[in-house]
Amino acid sequence: MRKNCCLSKPWRKIKKCYITRISLLCASLFLVNVPVFAAEKIDANEKAQQENKAKLENVQKAIAKQESNIFDTNKKRSTLEKELKRDDMAIAKVARAINNIEKQLSERQQQINVLAKQKQQLEQEKLKQETLLAKQLRSAYTTGQHDYLKLLLNQEQSEKIQRTVSYYHYLNKARIEEIENYQATIAQLLQVSTEHQEQIDQLEQLKIHQNQQAQLLKSTKAKRSKTLANLSKQLLSSQQQLAKLKSEENNLNAALQKLSELIQAEINLTGLSKLKRKLSWPVKGRMLHRFGSRKQGYLTWKGMLISAPIGRQVHSIHNGTILFSDWLKGYGLLTVIDHGNGYMSLYAHNQTLLKSVGDRVETGEPIALVGQSGGQEQSGLYFEIRHRGKAVNPKLWCK
């Protein structure tokens, strides 16, 4: 046992030494590889940073490109909207001219009808006078067989001569009067006939002018359609569309606020407070959008959009004074009427406006013609009622 124990001590030393050497060798190998691992890790971090930097640059370029596209789109839309305004104003000018021509045509036709009736009456009167003159001439011819000079020289029947002379004077006077009346009738008939023909000629000229204006209106509308088509190509996102509508609504509110400050209330304008359910709609048509319904995002309709054909007359719902009569972005050709006591009515998207600022209008009076100005694809009237600047439901007033 001792021998074995003695032999085991050197073995233990050798084993311990061996283990120590192996440990030192492993440690040295680990220490040698540490810089290699660290370098690889640094390289990986640098590569990741470069990739992230490249991605960030790409995102920034994409954002810049998108912003540039939005800027270009807004710039193009602004240019096209200005062109649309010019087109709407040109259409309004031609439509108003056509409306005036139609009024003149109606007046000329009425005058022609009156003159035609006068001409017919004068021709009947002329025929009666001719018949009466013919009878008088036959009577004169019948009695004229007794020589007038012989009757004067005949002294035997003085009383009979006196009666005959008086009779001749009576007949002659009556005949002269009828001839004068006949001549007056002929002169009046000639004058009426001449005026009648002049009115007919003017009517034909107005019709020619109306056709020319109609052709001009057609070409102007074609140009507007082209502008709208180009405008529709400039697509807007939902957010941009919402911002656009909000901007247009703010413009309207600002304009109304400015008008409210300029209003000088008239004593005879009593407002609409006592007229609920008593007013007529400004135009007959189908309701496309109702008050309070959703418009875009959180925006709602502040009035009614009524479908109606182009050219139909728009009537004032109540008497008042024209406060605004011009083109406004998003609303086209717009008329605003002050009814007193803070009440206003608005009429938008018209083809043309028939009244100017300051004009007094009565209930039911035509103030505009239905159109689709302001970029509308469908013809109709946008109608609002406001009280002290706040939009109220028109259905509470109109029946």
Automatic annotation (TrEMBL):
Coiled coil segments of this chain: 38-139, 179-265
Can you give the residue ranges of the M23ase beta-sheet core domain? 301-394
**What start and end residues bound the annotated signal peptide?**
1-38
A Pfam family that the UniProt record links to this protein: Peptidase_M23
Q: Which InterPro entries match?
A: Cell_wall_metabolism_enzyme, Dup_hybrid_motif, M23ase_b-sheet_dom
Question: Which SUPFAM superfamilies does this one have?
Answer: Duplicated hybrid motif
| This protein's UniProt keywords | Coiled coil, Signal
Record-level Gene Ontology MF annotations: metalloendopeptidase activity
User: What is this protein's record name?
Assistant: Peptidase M23
